[in-house]
Sequence to fold (149 residues):
Amino acid sequence: MPSESKKALPKWMKNRQVKIAFHLPTFSNPDHNERRFTLSKQIVNALSAIDDLFGPNKSSDGFWSRGSGVFRMIDGTDVNDPYIRYFIVLDPPWEQRIERLKEILEDFRTNSGDNKDGFAEQQSIYLEIQYCVDLVLVCQKQGAANGSS
Fold:
């Protein structure tokens, strides 16, 4: 399992954008009867907290796409997990916001299980951090719509 690097980043790197990607599973892990339950409520709660942290006028751009992946559980079994993948591109300074995002994702993980229904919380949440990102938005040139360049 990859571990988080505690190595200090070079100073020049801290002045660049950072890209964060994470997956929020849309269903619980299977219970003892192989039933899965929706995590819609937990996703709404996590996204509300994430929007408060990274929403409009907070130096970030967010994107998402739906996906699915097979993830190996601690016991060695494979589970096909539908998820929503989110991307956030942050302008500096981003260190404290990344730590807060980790807290939000940990809250989501620990709230993804329900002991009364017998399904387990998520064992982990995928989080990817890429440093020194250059975000380029490919778009129509101003004035190109009316034939000018």
